């Protein structure tokens, strides 16, 4: 039932300074987990550590009982986890079509059907498949970024602030797409500044602050909590 | 003047081959390879070794094709040299640059290391072949062919233009259509995202060095066919190479082609007013001009 | 070699290494402390040497002027040659810095390379400037009347050491001052230095000029030691590359390292000369290339296995930082 688990993670960008200290989260299969908290809490660092961009100094990461701690990103991707960074998440000089093709790089089969599925999920992209990703609007770019990650048919999708920098109507659109993707069976960990929306979608939520676990509960419970509302949801 | 222009195009196309390799390396691996000129040199010398040495010993005939100045030997030596120099470039990366990358050495240390490689290659050339100018086919008369407008051009030079065009088109198709070519473009765009997507960036880097080295060797051999082979030829190309790369915008393959042609023409035309030995200085002045006016080059700079 | 001859030989080695040490100190300011990648040292070497030569020689007159061409000749004493060399090199650095300092290390590198090449070409091909490829000879030496010419080198060694010491103390002073601390910050992380782009540019420019002026002095010292200048001296190998190897070997960011590196590498260079005496005859002609190959390989080994050089970077730049 637990598809991805990170236990006791201590990690940082340099050996001297740890961003995360003994952080743990669990993701159940088919569910959405949202990670919220103030800036600098280490949310992005957590995703990068799970995906193998950073190596933790303590703790481990398990995917369906397989220990994947410290594996490099390409190996993690091969095991069915995809990651969408917050910024610089497309190949700007390449077309939408090519961005998707790059997403499928480690696939050795014919993935044209998958590309059609992505275009079905994001029709706007389908209309513009020859356009260069760097020329797209913020919302379109975010869709390309997610589409690229989905090309691998991942079991788990890690999203780093998918709504960052988007206008409110686009934020709603992106969150709708996220729910659609989840309904198709992809388990997700979403890091979000937009805590309220993130918790609405979430089956379970974790609050991180200063690199540590502060709270975790179901999404609804966190939303209802006065303390969370006061501290993290901006009232 | 027209003849200078035409020869400038020929010379410029040779510069382009080197500049394309340089810009690929710059764009994907992000460092200035100061050994690139000397890769051109060693390419020319390896071909020389084969044409005047190895292939002669095993009895490949010395005949030339029609009015061209080379024949079967060069036909064999050319791709072999490209492959060898591609391999040397990869070796330099594996032995030196990769270790420095893994230690987190900055771009300057890498560039410094490549400067060292440049000198090592040049010293090896001087040790094995000496400092004299050498030729693929000594003593050969090279008659020119007359084109419309009274421009004289040698058949060799026409072939150089065709070959460069062929190589560039081939590279373009590779980068546009093939999976590894696209992976190279992706890595140049955003190396971290390429890693995240599962692209084996180490393989991309190896491929980049191989292509860069091979193209450099091609440029060196063509220069050797057209003019001569000597130990400092590559070093003398370094400034024009960098000027062409910067003019064409770093990381842009077609820019490097255009940049090479422009620098070649500018250098040749300058010989109407200055002594030919000043050509590198002319390329340098052109580069400074570009840096002052439009530092990101013709094609506006990489998209960030 | 008898003792007297050996001693004289060592003195000449010490002079040359000492002159190279001056260059290393100059490069250390630009690279070691500020992170500027200057691979055109040969250009400053050349300009410094020629400037001092032209200032200290007299303009050719009469029949002599048919054989030697100079742009000018002021016939001034050695000290003016030194100062003139420093001044002109500073100006060249300024002109080079304007288009390139904003643009990043690689652009600076290729520009310094280009300038060095351009100067070498100009001095080589323009006879009216400084006698072209033939160069200039008969440079005066400071205090040369004092002793028997055979013993003059001892005086020159003392002069070189004094100048080296003065420059060393000057730089150490400058590095420990507030100016020096800012320089360090600029090298480490430009953005967090909290300065505007214009300020960073100014600091880099000052560092470039300061280092170049010192290199100019080095060039002048070299010229007056050789008593002659000609364009072929200032090659990328002898005029740029070997200085980089010296600084990296000694420890960039460390003035003592700069001086030590100069002596050690020059010592190794001389050692390779002695070793090549044992080479079989057919290789002897290639001896200088083999020696430089050794230096090149040495550099790569240092970069991989001991990039901090012998002494490493200086730990304490200022007591106030602790």
Q: Could you name the CATH homologous superfamily of chain A? A: P-loop containing nucleotide triphosphate hydrolases
The succession of helices and strands of chain A, N to C, reads: EEEHEEHEHHHHEHEHEEHH
Q: How many strands in all of chain C?
A: 2
Number of helices of chain A: 10
Level of helix content of chain A? 25-40%
Strand content of chain C: under 5%
Q: What fraction, in percent, of the residue positions of chain C are helical?
A: 55-70%
CATH 2nd-level architecture of chain A:
3-Layer(aba) Sandwich
What's the structural domain tally of chain C?
A: 1
Walk across the major sheet of chain C and give the strand order.
1-2
Largest sheet of chain C: 2 strands, antiparallel
Poorly predicted runs of chain A: none
DSSP helix count of chain C?
13
Which structural class is indicated by helix and strand composition of chain C? mainly alpha
**Average of pLDDT of chain C:** 86
Strand count, sense and barrel status of the largest sheet of chain A are: 6 strands, mixed
Instruction: Please give the oligomerization state of what you see.
Output: heterotrimer
Question: What is the spatial order of strands in the main beta sheet of chain A?
Answer: 6-7-8-3-9-10
Give the tags:
heterotrimer, A: 235 residues, alpha/beta, Rossmann fold, 4-stranded antiparallel beta sheet, 10 strands, 37% helix, B: 304 residues, mainly alpha, 11 helices, 72% helix, 1% strand
